[in-house]
Amino acid sequence: MEVATHGQVLTRFGFALSDPTRSQILLALRQAPAYPADLAEGIGVSRQSLSNHLACLRGCGLVVAVPQGRRVRYELSDSHLAHALTELLDVVLAVDPEACTASGAGKDCC
């Protein structure tokens, strides 16, 4: 298994959080491990969409699939991720909407 650098870890984490569905999955798994059907229902997405997002999160190294008989349960790959997500939720952002349009990022900027 290849060990990621700090920069690679942050890039993977940022990519995962850049999508609202993946963010919701991570927040749900922060609370407790879950089965895909339950995650899809709780988040309000199709099972196919959820499956694609879970594959992405597995590829980023943020979640793991744990076989349980005929079912597979998903959980965060490291307990530090739950703490990191909790800390991120406590961050107070100083948003400057003018900075996005000035930089040329356009309306898609946060």
What are the key terms here?
two-stranded antiparallel ribbon, globular, Arc Repressor Mutant, subunit A, mainly alpha, single chain, 56% helix, 110 residues, 6 helices
CATH third-level topology: Arc Repressor Mutant, subunit A
Question: How many distinct helices?
Answer: 6
Mean of pLDDT: 89
Strand-residue fraction? 5-15%
Number of domains: 1
What is the terminal-to-terminal distance? 35 Å
Domain HTH arsR-type: 3-96
Organism: Kineosporia mesophila
Protein name: Winged helix-turn-helix domain-containing protein
Pfam families: HTH_5 (PF01022)
In short:
This protein has helices spanning 6-17, 20-31, 36-43, 47-59, 79-89, 97-102; strands spanning 63-68, 71-76. It is mainly α.
